[in-house]
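Hey,

Quick one before I head out. I ran the complex with D-glutamic acid overnight. Inputs first:
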Amino acid sequence: VSFPPQPDRPISARSQSPIGVFDSGLGGLTVVRELMQAMPAEDVVYLADTARVPYGIKSLETVRRFARQDAAFLMGFDPKVLVVACNTASAAGYEDLRDRLDLPVVDVIRPGVRAALRAVDGPVGVIATEATVDSGAYQREIAARDPGRVVHACCCPLLVPIVEEGRDDDDPIVLSVLCDYLGPLQRARVEAIILGCTHYPLLAGPIAKLMGPDVRLINSGQAAALEVQAELCSNALSDPRDRSGRLTCFTTDKPDRFARLAERFGGRRPHSVDFVGTDELEVRARPGM
Ligand code: DGL
């Protein structure tokens, strides 16, 4: 994909560009929550590909193609950094985007892995979508940083719909599904669990309760937000204005549903939610593909 050239602007103006964030749907707002908490002055433009969600059961080739299209759309806002908030899109498309784009790209897998390896010395559990686990992205990243580290990766396909449905933490269905998924990690005596999917921070309460106080839960969005903050600081790109940043959202389907559920995921109401068709995303990504 060849994206529009970056305008040559002074650093002060560039620092006022937004952070571009994309995800397959609502879940990436848990990452936006962390970004806006760590960097309240920053504007965020968020794309939710709700027409094509879930990414977590699709092939890596398909998710990589969607990720290119999502990124191409956000490039139209001239972001100063691009955040791949979706763990599945990070697994499938991070290297591809990093190599193609002329701006810093931050994903959620690598920061989460670094945080987990810093937090504990023993076995690490990863819970994520089927596509993320099967991609081996977490296993490879952990092995590259600490070859001897034992990793247990489990896919938990029921958790995304359970979270979207908004069931309470102590709902028997939530607890019995979690018991089933977390059993192997308990038996493996993992010392940390990477919440390797956008939706899972919303289940942190019951997961912590089931795993007990000695198991550290790693929120990938929080780890990614710290990385974005460090990236902006070291390049003098932090927004210096004393203000609250704007959250501008686009969705490829059902903007009304997105607007209704957004606050539960992102902790704030978006300033705007507008529709953009997947046909438009495809057209924007077309040149040079
Ligand atoms: N955003 C996805 C992830 O973090 C979860 C939802 C989906 O499968 O698209 O992997």
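The pocket of D-glutamic acid is lined by residues 23-25, 27, 53-56, 86-88, 129, 132, 160, 197-199 (CB under 6 Å).

Talk tomorrow,
K.
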